[in-house]
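Q: My labmate handed me this sequence with no annotations at all. I'd like to see what the chain might look like in three dimensions before we decide whether it's worth expressing. Could you predict it?
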Amino acid sequence: MTATAFVGLGVMGFPMAGHLRAAGHEVTVYNRTQAKAEAWIAAHGGRSAPTPAEAAAGTELVMVCVGNDDDVRAVTMGEDGALAGMAAGTVLVDHTTASAEMARELHAAAARQAIGFVDGPVSGGQSGAEQGQLTVMCGGEPAAFERARPVIEAYAKTVTLLGPAGSGQLTKMVNQICIAGVLQGLSEGLDFGRRAGLDLDLVLATISQGAAGSWQMENRGATMARREFDFGFAVDWMRKDLQIVLDEASRIEAVLPLTALVAQFYGRLQRQGHGRWDTSSLIELLAEG
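A: Here is what I predict for the chain of 289 residues:
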């Protein structure tokens, strides 16, 4: 059993923290909305704290899963932030999809207090979090990673150290670039098939067994064909992630024409009021024609 704190109980953090508790770890939670913390305790036990610093006090590992760079700073820095409550020799893990620069900033702040740091963004979406089957992409020093890995495995199917601080965030950016391209291609293929009068269920069953097959086709193809999007990884989150990608691409002079185009498409869906739809809703823009 490891004494842990989990900061941020959104659609990802709520089940992730629950898996920690189910694995036998001691868990103290913090959430900006206290009602969510109370709901988590009702479901899983454990306890909550009024600030991230108080949640982190006396723990060995602190996990953070919030919205963006500003949210990370708000719950980790300052007198009420998690770092203020952590002791030397403990480890802070940030599961937020944030910028690589945020990871490096947090690593430096933690190091000044002799605290280990791992940036560990995740892939697998809400269903992966609920099933404890996330892919966790990590950056940081090996010693901190090895301290955190056995605990992270409570909600992960793979946990990989990819390099120094920031490497996890950079790998998540590669992940989102690839997903954006696959979803746009799948959207165009399915819309083409619909317009050509094909049986899309039969098409998907056939081509999913060949080189075109992908996780997105297997898990989203049928719902895309039926125009069902009220679930999964939200457009708002993907648009945020792709902006992080494009900002980093500008910094390192990487050329991402398809990613930039898909980011614009997600912006259109947001303006139409569909920010909470699943990312597979890209196909709706093609149906307009």
